[in-house]
Amino acid sequence: MSYNQELNIALLAIQRATLLTQTVFHNNAKGTLSKDDRSPVTIGDFGAQALIISALRHNFPNDEIVAEEEASSLRENPSLAEQIFNLVKESKLNDSSAENQLGGPINNLEAMLTAIDAGNSSGGAKGRIWALDPIDGTKGFLRGGQYALCLALIVDGDVKLGVLGCPNLPINNAAPISADVAGEGKGVLFGAVQGQGATSRPMTPGPLASAQAISMKEVSDITLATFCESVEAAHSSHGDQAEIARRLGITKESVRMDSQAKYGSIARGAGDLYLRLPVRKDYEEKIWDHAAGDLIVREAGGEVTDAEGKRLDFGVGRTLRGNKGIVAAPRGCHGKVLDVVKEVLGGKR
Question: pTM for this structure?
């Protein structure tokens, strides 16, 4: 199957939802805000989820959706729900053909709440299931840094399609990796279909821009590699990752960046390695935090496994409960990186 229609709709849906998140980002998001019922990230999460799920339900009404948010708190807070709906109504692509493909606007507040609640699938290994994170990188969004809108289609437990919208990454694929969001020329859409490679394209407020094929950079000397990790120490073990870098002979400082923007960055060769090692034995990664990025990196010539070398299993529910940690690298050096990961983690047991 080519998944051409699915890719087109996923790209357009992410592009439209980005208009809403960027409105919130530029008007309200300040580093001092926390995630509560009235914080901009909550408004952005709910609004983006409603827009994306509405487009998916219009085009693929029989598909299931696993998404991060649900609308019960909005039903108990009508003023907040109305505030979000006003943003949703204003978030339209400036191309009527593209808007029509997405099913047009959400007609009323109840339709918006119903769309948000449609992300309640329990996941699994059978059928077509979309995995959606409307704003990945909550802390980055609040502090004015990197964040991503993430959507993947999983068919019978296997990721077939992935799209990342990274509004604050540079459009230029040759730009050096940085968590900095200053400057012009920002906003990139990454996409991949299994067996068809990975692409990037500039975000627009209307129809899709032309795509450019992307690929990971070959790493002939691992000591010169650039590795990415999460900003938050609660998300991954900075100490273990620093020790792995030391044993690999990497002397460059890591690039700490929020969200699946890290997957997009290494997929286009701006960085080389992405490590996310567990901080707690009982922690289970959510499928929406990795499905799109996993496929995009693999289609760009990379390898993504857990810390034991197993492929990520997106067919066991809403979490990656069969996997611990993430190791993403170019195929040519993934094995070497993984060996050192096992050494460092094995030494702690």
Answer: 0.95
